[in-house]
Write a structure and sequence with these properties.
The chain has an 8-stranded mixed β-sheet, with helices on both faces. It is built from 6 helices and 8 strands, in the order E-E-E-H-E-H-E-H-E-H-E-H-E-H.
C-alpha cells in the first residue's frame, strides 16, 4: 500500500493525524472512503485491526482510504469529547479526502465502527458529499436520534450475531422503516469486537462500496 501521513486541520488550534492510502494500481480517478474508529477508551484508534483491515481491503479493490485519529487520540490535538464535537473531525477528514490526488469527489464513502458509526449518525446532515454509508455495530440510540432512517443514500449496517452491545434483532427492527437502498449483514459467531473476523467484515464493506460507488 502507498500510505501518506497527513495533517487534518479542524480549527486554528486543532489538528488531527491521519493516513491516506492511495491504491497504486488505480488508473484515473478512484473512489475514496473515510474510516472512523471505535471508542478510544475501549482501545479504538486509527490503527484498530478492523479499521486497518477495511483500509487494506479498499486498497485491493482500488479504493482510496483515509483513516484518522479523533481529537485527543494518539497524536491528534485537543481533548476527546465523547461524541459532542467529533462530528467536526469527520467533516474535516472528508474535506481533506476530497483534496487528495486521484480522488473522484463524486464517489466518496463514509465508514464508521461503533463510536465511529455513532459520530457519523450524529453529524449526518453535514456529509452531503458522501454517496454511500457503512455503519458497523452502531449504538441503537444513535440510530434513534439520527435521520438515517429517512436518508436516501445507499447504506449498509453490519453487526455481530453475538453482539451484546448492539443486539442484532434490535438493530434489524430499527431498520424496518428505513428508506431503501439499505443492506443488513449479520456476521455469524461474532461479538462486538469481531475478533478474528476483521477481514470477513472488511470484505463485506468493500464489496458493498464498490457496487454503490460506481461512477
Amino acid at each position: 500500500m502507498h500510505q501518506t501521513a497527513i495533517d487534518i486541520i479542524v480549527a486554528k488550534n486543532l489538528q488531527l493525524e491521519g493516513v491516506f492510502t492511495r491504491p497504486h494500481t488505480a488508473c484515473g480517478g478512484f473512489p475514496t472512503i473515510v474510516v472512523c474508529h471505535p471508542h478510544p477508551l475501549l482501545g479504538g484508534d486509527m490503527d484498530h485491526p478492523l479499521v486497518m483491515a477495511i483500509c487494506q481491503a479498499a486498497n485491493r479493490g482500488k479504493v482510496g482510504s483515509l483513516r484518522f485519529n479523533f481529537r485527543g487520540v494518539g497524536k491528534s490535538d485537543g481533548m476527546f469529547t465523547g461524541g459532542d464535537q467529533e462530528r467536526k473531525d469527520v467533516k474535516a477528514a472528508l474535506n481533506i479526502a476530497k483534496l487528495m490526488p486521484g480522488t473522484d469527489v463524486t464517489r466518496l464513502g463514509l465508514v464508521g465502527y461503533s463510536f465511529g458509526a455513532s459520530t457519523i449518525l450524529q453529524g449526518l446532515s453535514r456529509y452531503k458529499e458522501v454517496k454511500s454509508l457503512v455503519l458497523i455495530s452502531p449504538p441503537i440510540t444513535s440510530i434513534r436520534n439520527s435521520r438515517i432512517i429517512k436518508d436516501q443514500r445507499p447504506k449498509m449496517f453490519i453487526v455481530g450475531q453475538k453482539d451484546g452491545v448492539v443486539p442484532p434483532i434490535d438493530l434489524q427492527r430499527m431498520l424496518d422503516d428505513a428508506r431503501h437502498p439499505v443492506r443488513f449483514r449479520e456476521i455469524s459467531g461474532a461479538n462486538h469486537n469481531f475478533l478474528g473476523q476483521a477481514e470477513e467484515v472488511a470484505e463485506h464493506v468493500i464489496c458493498f462500496l464498490l457496487k454503490t460507488l460506481e461512477s
